[in-house]
Amino acid sequence: MKLFASLTSPYARKIRILLAEKALPFELVVDSPWEVNTRVPEVNPLGKVPALVTEGGEVFFDSPVVAGYLEALNVAPHMLPGDPLERVRVRQVEALADGVTDAAVAALLESRRPDGERSDREIGRQKEKIDRGLAELERRATGRTWMHGDSLTLGDIAVGVALAYLDLRFPDHGWRTRYPSLAQLAERLFARESFASTVPPMG
Ligand SMILES: N[C@@H](CCC(=O)N[C@@H](CS)C(=O)NCC(=O)O)C(=O)O
User: Atom 11 (ligand 1): residue with closest C-alpha?
Assistant: First the structure.
């Protein structure tokens, strides 16, 4: 398997963590879709990472789909429950955490627009999504070790990646103080080898 990824992409990091937790061998193709000579559009028409190319040459993209493919390989530890409804519940946590990441990416891109084109209102709107999303994740995390059930799932991985992305892009956000259950979860997650070995470089 080949994974097209940039080292700072939180969505690609979610997949790299999943691959590490399952100890699945893969080739990491580091490619930033923002560079002019990127080859990502050759595998993903949308020009986004992550994109996974299987041994047979089939391509999967959009991180929830890639995660679904990796789970379908049936390699332990399983990161989604077997029960269909419980599975949807974990995927809901993943979607909520990915949505926080989406809003953080949108706020960052807006903040990098030149003077006169940048909208502070839009940045504020995205930051509200981040905080509403985190408040809901905090509610769900309170009083439990993992976001769902009694073991690590894809939901926890997506939450950890979203929180780490806030540390990277908005280090003054203050989520650890405002969301103590998420802070405890993050401490457990960040100590895992899968998270430690995929820390993004600054940039
Ligand atoms: N929903 C997608 C989002 C992927 C995404 O937006 N990736 C960014 C990197 S963080 C990207 O490749 N952006 C390039 C672009 O938008 O052209 C997923 O979960 O995989």
Answer: 48
Given this model, what pLDDT does residue 202 score? 79
Q: How confident is the model at residue 154 (pLDDT cuts 50, 70, 90)?
A: very high
| Pocket lining for ligand 1, CB < 6 angstroms | 9, 11, 33, 47-50, 62-63, 98, 105
CATH of the domain at 91: 1.20.1050.10
- Residue 203, pLDDT above cutoff 70: no
Residue 26 pLDDT: 98
- Hey, CA dihedral for 111, 37, 66, 27, is it positive or negative? negative
What is the DSSP annotation of 61-77? Answer: ESHHHHHHHHHHTTPSS
* Strand order from edge to edge, sheet including 27-30: 27-30, 2-5, 51-53, 59-61
Q: What is the mean pLDDT of residues 170-199?
A: 98
Is residue 78 classed exposed, middle or buried when 0-12, 13-18 and 19+ CB atoms within 10 A define those classes? middle
Range of the domain at 43: 2-72
Name the nearest CA neighbour of 119 among 107, 131, 137, 132.
Answer: 107
Residue 172 identity (one-letter amino acid): D
Give the Cα separation of 66 and 121 in Å (integer): 34
Classify residue 197: in a domain, yes or no: no
pLDDT tens-digit map of 50-90: 999 999 999 999 999 999 999 999 999 999 999 999 999 99
